[in-house]
Every structure is written in structure tokens, then in C-alpha cells.
Specification:
single chain, about 160 residues, about 75% helix, elongated
Length: about 160
């Protein structure tokens, strides 16, 4: 964020890639409030906000367990006519898991499939984790089975979560 301020003081033109990088850095550091602020600056400017920027901001909310804000941001993608992405949806599902909202995870996963957005390993693992946290082991095992049927690659995290469920 300090580097971004230095760029502004030096009259360097800021673009989508610059903001995306700083928002991602804030997300990785767990600074979701700063990520939100920067995303707001982008939204108020005439800069184009792409699905990667949305995904980074939503991921920041997920790290902060701010599932309501993550979902609001996902919904605003449609209003801004930004193409939905697997990354953005997966990040919201992660936020739902952290907020013990397993039903919402399943609902969003269903919406993804309806919109023909292909869930990946992270998507399924996060939804399985949400079910596990909600003591919904039957739902978790159904998702695990669906993941296998969909031929989505599984990793050790997926298996660990399914076993815990």
C-alpha cells in the first residue's frame, strides 16, 4: 500500500494490474479492510475491474471470515457485467465455510453448476469443509462422490476433509 502511495506521489499512472497486485498482497496479509478500500477506489474510478480483481477482493473477505461482504461483492460482478469466475465463487464458498454456512456453500455450488461455471478442487474441498464444520457428514460425502463423478482432481486436503467429515 505504501508503494501504491509512492506511485501516486510520483505521478505514475495506476492501472488494473497495479491495483490487482496490491489487493492480492493485502489478501495474502489478511488485510481485508485495506483490500476493500482499494477495491472501492477502483470502483469509483473509471478503471475497468476484471474478474481477477473481484476474485482477489473476495478472497480477502474470505480470509477475514466476512462471508456477507464476499457474497455482496460476488453479486456486484453481475451488476458490473464482469464475467463470473471459478476463483470468485470458490472464495465465497471458503468464506461460507469459515462462517459455518454449509447450506449457503451448497446453494452457491448449485448456482455455479447452473451457470455452467466449472467447480475445481478448491471449490469442492471448500464446500466439503463447510459441510464438515456443520456436522453434515452425509452432505460432505455426497459432494465427495459428485467430485469423483465430475472427474475433478482431488488432493490430500480433499481426502483429509472428507475423512474428518
Amino acid at each position: 500500500v505504501q508503494l501504491l502511495s509512492s506511485m501516486v506521489r510520483s505521478s505514475v499512472e495506476l492501472d488494473t494490474i497495479t491495483f490487482r497486485s496490491v489487493i492480492s498482497a493485502c489478501e495474502k496479509c489478511g488485510e481485508w479492510q485495506k483490500a476493500l478500500h482499494l477495491f472501492g477506489v477502483m470502483a469509483r474510478s473509471e478503471m475497468r475491474i476484471d474478474s481477477i480483481c473481484f476474485g482477489a477482493a473476495i478472497s480477502a473477505f474470505a480470509k477475514g471470515s466476512e462471508w456477507k461482504k464476499a457474497l455482496q461483492l460476488l453479486n456486484s460482478m453481475e451488476q458490473r457485467k464482469v464475467e463470473f469466475s471459478t476463483i470468485a465463487h470458490s472464495a465465497v464458498i471458503i468464506a461460507f465455510a469459515k462462517g459455518s454456512k454449509w447450506e449457503k456453500s451448497l446453494q452457491l455450488l448449485g448456482e455455479m453448476l447452473h451457470r455452467t461455471i466449472k467447480p475445481n478442487t478448491i471449490t469442492y474441498s471448500s464446500a466439503i469443509s463447510a459441510c464438515e464444520m456443520g456436522n453434515e457428514w452425509e452432505q460432505a460425502l455426497q459432494l465427495f462422490s459428485r467430485m469423483t463423478q465430475s472427474q475433478v482432481e482431488m488432493d490430500t486436503t480433499t481426502f483429509s476433509i472428507a475423512i474428518r467429515a
